[in-house]
Design a protein that fits this description.
Dipeptide-binding Protein, domain 1, 10-stranded mixed β-sheet, 4-stranded antiparallel β-sheet, Dipeptide-binding Protein, domain 3, disordered N terminus
Length: about 550
């Protein structure tokens, strides 16, 4: 066991006992570097760069393939798409995955031609080719396909642009789009396009529990409620990836128990830390704690259809009235960056926070705007929020802070909190004049977040524009951003859209989340990827 900092011993012993009680067989992971307890034969591939390691997870994958389940961290380690976000460089740059090169854009963006690598194998040993990609996509999008009704497909959101897919030759595939989609390059990173072994699929293999992926690791053993062990796939095409011979996945639901396991050397990596937990682990010898800035945005939507929120001065006043810096410091313990527009800095050139209208904390300005709008004494309303869900930060505490800020300028709000499914069902219908929400974009392209939330065609029940913003200038810029593959034009269009959106203030812009990961300092080759869930762990190994 590692040496603990003075003063932490009592807490650590208690938490570790809790962890042992919860995890049961956690002691089997004490010889982490070799994973001898799992009794696995050596992998057939060339020598690994280092030793095996174990990651601790808050929840267990409910299946193996992303198109039919939620494998989360497991999927990041075993699956590979045609394109990928750069893992080695730990960035949102789109790079070839199982494709030999970036797609060729044809027919003014209505057809994408992808040349596959000729050295990619699925984990059942069969070779990837054009037929395997075509069959994989068609079984999801073609209602007449014999396998279409076999599963409830999860990935259809980013396959909806495809009209048909055609094998040009053994390793070349053409994707025909129903209509132009400027975000298609991002969509090709989805596992819905990845491909699968045709013969196994025709035999109606159990995709939920069978590993048919083509990534650097394959499943050696998987025990529901226990440990999962991955081993390097000896036919993986990139010799520079998959540097540990094995990776263990251990489910430890309680965060203090995971922290104790990390301190004890029984796991080597974990995420899902609060800012307070991260500060504790920073004091532990032998551990490294890294922060991850995200695409996530937390905001309050303001329904512009009805008074007083129909007046832009009122919406701007509600923005000026919130002390965002104090909220981040006092409620979130610093685990966020202030938001100025829908997109965080992690969107790169699409970020417009330094160009949009800023609503710095100014209660006097807020009062003046309310008076100018005809509400010198403020008004009464309700903040609708949820009782808490992973990915929603601290909705009740944040709402209470905002409630107090607004009260100080005369806006008296009750808080009504409901459980997530009921809350989101009503919010999506546009039933809440004022509602909180945290949003994690599914890709690093701004189309999903900005278009869905602000284009006039996206008001309920179509999509998520629950502020009911319907502005011709916003539509013009978003249409331009969605209508071209010219990156300079796209960037300018989305920046201009954000400038107009910030001016109209359909949201109270609050913050972008910062999350934390902690890991053993002996874990080499790992870089924190902005997409999270340990995307770059495939390059990690222990010394």
């Amino acid at each position: 066991m590692r040496t603990k900092k003075k003063g932490n011993a009592k807490r650590t012993v208690i938490d570790r006992r809790t962890m042992l009680k919860v995890a049961g067989a956690a002691g089997a992971l004490t010889t982490v570097s070799g994973m001898a307890p799992f009794g696995l034969a050596p992998v057939a591939r060339a020598a690994a760069a280092g030793k095996s390691f174990v990651i601790g997870l808050a929840s267990e994958a409910d299946g193996v393939s992303t198109i039919v389940a939620r494998p989360d961290h497991l999927g990041r380690l075993i699956e590979r798409g045609l394109l990928d976000y750069d893992r080695a460089g730990a960035s949102f740059k789109i790079v070839p995955g199982t494709a030999a090169s970036m797609p060729e854009i044809l027919d003014d963006g209505l057809r994408f031609r992808i040349k596959l690598r000729d050295d990619v194998y699925f984990h059942d040993g069969s070779k990837m080719n054009a037929e395997s990609v075509v069959y994989w996509v068609n079984m999801q999008i073609d209602k007449e396909h014999p396998l279409n009704k076999l599963y409830k497909w999860r990935a259809l959101g980013r396959l909806k642009s495809i009209e048909k897919v055609v094998a040009v030759d053994e390793y070349t595939v053409d994707f025909y789009l129903k209509k132009f989609n400027a975000a298609q390059m991002d969509w090709f990173t989805d596992i819905g396009y990845a491909g699968g072994p045709v013969e196994r699929l025709k035999n109606k293999v159990d995709l939920v529990n069978t590993d048919l992926a083509a990534g650097p690791y394959t499943i050696a053993s998987r025990q529901r409620g226990g440990a999962t062990v991955l081993e390097r796939f000896d036919k993986y095409f990139d010799p520079n990836e998959g540097n540990a011979p094995r990776i263990g996945l251990k489910t430890i639901p309680e965060v203090n128990a995971r922290m104790a396991a990390l301190e004890a050397g029984e796991i080597d990596w974990m995420d899902g830390l609060s800012a307070e937990s991260a500060q504790h682990l920073k004091k532990v010898e032998g551990l490294e704690v890294s922060e991850r800035k995200t695409l996530y945005v937390w905001f309050i939507s303001l329904d512009m259809r009805n008074k007083p929120l129909s007046d832009v001065r009122v919406r701007q006043a509600l923005n000026y009235a919130v002390d965002k810096e104090s909220l981040i410091r006092d409620v979130l313990s610093g685990a966020a960056e202030r938001s100025y527009s829908p997109l965080s800095k992690q969107f790169g050139d699409f970020y417009a926070g330094d160009q949009v209208k800023h609503y710095d904390y100014d209660p006097d300005r807020a009062k003046a705007l309310l008076k100018e709008a005809g509400y010198p004494d403020g008004f009464k309303s309700t903040i609708y929020t949820n009782t808490g869900r992973i990915g929603q930060m601290k909705p009740i505490e944040m709402s209470q802070f905002i409630q107090a800020n607004w009260k100080a300028v005369g806006v008296d709000c009750n808080i009504e909190a409901s459980e997530w499914s009921a809350f989101e069902s009503r919010r999506r219908k546009g039933e809440f004049p004022i509602a909180t929400r945290g949003w994690t974009p599914s890709t690093a392209d701004p189309d999903g977040l900005v278009f869905q939330n602000f284009h006039s065609s996206m008001v309920p029940p179509t999509q998520r524009n629950v502020a009911f913003l319907q502005d011709p200038d916003v539509d013009k810029w978003l249409d331009l951003g969605m209508g071209t593959l010219d990156m300079a034009k796209r960037t300018n269009a989305f920046v201009e859209a954000q400038k107009r959106i910030a001016e109209l203030a359909p949201w109270v812009f609050i913050c972008h989340e910062i999350t934390f990961e902690a890991y053993n300092k002996d874990l080499m080759g790992y870089r924190v990827h902005p997409s999270g869930r340990g995307r770059s762990l495939t390059y990690a190994y222990k010394v």
